[in-house]
């Protein structure tokens, strides 16, 4: 049920994830940061089976940090990190399949990068993406309103348009999201609690 959307602009890579943690019909947490910061430069969010998500997130973060120190504190590129993650998932498909989807984004010397990796090890590099049930509802919104030259205020407004559709059309009516913006200057975190008028037509 995790709703995730991500996109890149000319100068930034952005990942947005809703903040609730559910178990069956029960809400366990409503302010959970699901977006992991890697090497103080990249962003990653892992969704899927709860056990695989917890184990694989910790494993990936620790392994990438280990590679950083083994490489004399020289961080691999965002593309190298994404491809390394992809290879690990692909190699595990026949032995012990991992039921996760991963969104990986960052800004390095090559500029903003966004990658999505599914549970079969398929890697794509889109300009914007939505994962899980949210993709059925907000990809059309992203198609309509996405611009590559958005500034910070326009990015927030773009995300709110997507949240509005989820609040009105999705059964869970998610409205509390965490947005992380990755630029050459670092990572900025913005919490968005957007509750639109559900009866107002647009």
From TrEMBL:
Transmembrane segments: none annotated. It holds the Pfam family Proteasome. It comes from the Eukaryota. The keyword Glycosyltransferase does not apply. GO terms for biological process: proteolysis involved in protein catabolic process. Coiled coil: none annotated. One of its GO terms (cellular component) is cytoplasm. InterPro entries: Ntn_hydrolases_N, Proteasome_sua/b, Proteasome_suB-type. Gene3D superfamilies: Glutamine Phosphoribosylpyrophosphate, subunit 1, domain 1. It is found in: Nucleus. Keywords: Cytoplasm, Proteasome. The keyword Cytoplasm applies. PANTHER family: METALLOPROTEASE TLDD, PROTEASOME SUBUNIT BETA TYPE-1. This is Proteasome subunit beta type. It comes from Trepomonas sp. PC1.
């Amino acid at each position: 049920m995790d709703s995730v959307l991500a996109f890149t602009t000319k100068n930034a890579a952005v990942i947005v994830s809703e903040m609730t943690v559910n178990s069956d019909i029960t809400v366990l947490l409503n302010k959970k940061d699901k977006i992991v910061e890697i090497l103080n430069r990249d962003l990653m969010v892992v969704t899927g089976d709860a056990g695989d998500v917890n184990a694989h997130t910790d494993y990936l973060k620790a392994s990438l940090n280990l590679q950083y120190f083994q490489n004399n504190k020289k961080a691999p590129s965002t593309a190298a990190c994404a491809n390394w993650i992809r290879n690990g998932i692909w190699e595990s498909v026949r032995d012990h399949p991992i039921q996760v989807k991963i969104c990986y984004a960052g800004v390095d010397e090559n500029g903003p990068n966004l990658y999505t990796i599914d549970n079969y090890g398929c890697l794509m590099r889109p300009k914007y993406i939505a994962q899980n049930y949210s993709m059925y509802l907000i990809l059309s919104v992203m198609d309509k309103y996405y611009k590559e030259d958005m500034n910070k205020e326009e990015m927030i407004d773009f995300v709110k348009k997507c949240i509005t559709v989820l609040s009105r059309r999705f059964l869970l009516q998610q409205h509390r999201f965490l947005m992380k913006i990755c630029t050459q200057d670092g990572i900025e975190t913005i919490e968005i609690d957007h509750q639109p008028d559900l009866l107002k037509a647009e």
